Amino acid sequence: MTSKNQVLERLFFKLLPVQIMIFGMNSINSIVDGVIAGRYIDGKTVGVIGLFFAVVGIVSAISSVILGGGTVLSGNYIGAGDLEKTRGVFSLCISLSFIIGVAISLVCFCFPRQIAVFCGADESLMMSVMQYSRGYALGILPMFLSQQLASYLQLETQSKRNYMGVAAMIFFNITLDILFVTVLGLGVLGLAYATSACNWIYFLVLAPYYISGKSQMKFSFTNILWEKIFELIRIGSPGALLQFCLAMRDLTLNRVILRYGGEAGLSSRASMGMIASFFVALGVGGGTVIRMLASVYVGEEDKDSIKQLIKLALTKLMAMTCVLMVIMILFAGPMAAIFFPDKSSEVYILTRQQFMIYTLALPGVLLVQIQTNYLQATRNTLAVHASSIVDGYLSVVVPSLILAPVMGALGVWWATPIGIVITTMVYPIYALIYWKRLPKGVDEWLLFRSGFGVKDEDRLCITVNSMDDVIGSSERIQKFVSDKGYAKRTAYFSALAMEEMSGNIVNHGFNADSRKHDMDVRVVSLNDGIMLRIKDDCKAFNPVDMEKLLKPEDPSKNIGIRMISKIADEFSYQNMLGLNVLTIKIK
Predict the structure, then answer these.
(1) Alpha-carbon gap, residue 258 to 254, rounded angstroms
(2) Is residue 434 located within the same domain as residue 491?
(3) The predicted structure's pLDDT at residue 271
(4) Do the beta carbons of residue 87 and residue 217 sit within 8 Å?
(5) 502 with 464: CB under 8 angstroms?
(6) Over the stretch 133-149, which tens digit does the pLDDT of each residue have?
(7) Do 475 and 408 reside in the same domain of the chain?
(8) Measured between alpha carbons, how far is 547 from 375 in angstroms, rounded to an integer?
(9) Number of domain units in the chain
(10) Of 564, 549, 553, which Cα lies nearest the Cα of 505?
């Protein structure tokens, strides 16, 4: 019999590739820009793009407030089965993204000199940074909107559209970079134009789904949950604080590296900024999936799934990260040569050293992502703020200031793995403060309060793979409900409801295609009755809508659905994250 862990594991690794792709996409585009700049303009232009990363970091910080807060709020409402409020959060996120995207675009376009001074550009780089700022400004609005649309596409299991958008973005970034720089000779402005155009292309690939009438997420001015804006900001602000701290770290370290590593060190560090997303995409993507799923499980108060989720990340995902670490160490030289082909040059040597040292931090990066995203999903905001400040600024800047005067650029490189080790200590220290003692057992390390979730004796969890499982489970449910002190009628109806609906799923859903499917059945004893929640990963099918469409003159058709709708006090359905979720309450 398949365990519940395999159901969750299949869902986790279904969501993971899209998140890796979305995050890694930025790195691929930056690598393309860096290669074109280094090979067809000059090495100094790579440093120009690196200086502007501080602005990109601030833009990402603001966007992450909406993205992080919206993901957690939406996940909680999905877990509670409230689709209407999920749509309200979606409408709020789109509205905020539009307003803020327009405002930042105007700032970057109208005040390029002030932007260049903020980035730390000297007179030799001032004009190039100003040009890049104006060109980049044209693509900020679609970037804001696309991040929201891409996140909600995953909830609606529309990953193929995300893949199409990323593929189109990468193709056109390469094509337009070559056209604008090598053919039209637009220089650094051409690189910015290409990036902005690709942001619009990505948006235009994603947006049609939401105006096609097929999406469950529907934008509505009247449905915008403006009253949730402060809660969204509160939940999302830790992620923004991290991005802001990273931007400040870039500004600080750019000055440190210029002083102790010269222009070669600055260009080397800029190349790391371009390819860093590629290094950490697995860890950051895994962290995003954890936040998404943990938010849903928190809404359901499902302790078992939360434990299995964290265990999966700490075992299989960590193993994948360690394999990636070894591969990246072996390919540090070829990756450095992508930017700086002269292997005898100082900048190539510094870059190769930096890539190898940075790679050692990848397991720690994953651990930090697991910790911070879980803390955010469980709304332990203070801990996330602390982690953001330590991870984003202090843990790297302080070692850099100590080591750089002694080791030069290498001191800045070694500060990253040192900083990651320091950051991993934030979670256990917070757990000690949270409980005011050493936590006891897994539940306390995961910060579960005594009132969170259903007690073990008040729930029954069953995995169904066949009709034999359905029949056996029906008997177990009837006994469970009877043992909880409910009337025989309630016990019988609970078992009957599960048998009818699970039998339908096995007969029709499991055999609808050639894929392997699983079903999770949970029976919970509540204060006012019994709740049955059935999850499966089959093709979407809404029995609630089906019952409403059935004609009364044909009572023999879909008799099981008719019967359950009559005996159930509540009968609801939703399809999110690729799972059918049917909830039946019998009081």
Answers:
(1) 6
(2) no
(3) 79
(4) yes
(5) yes
(6) 899 999 999 989 988 88
(7) no
(8) 40
(9) 2
(10) 564
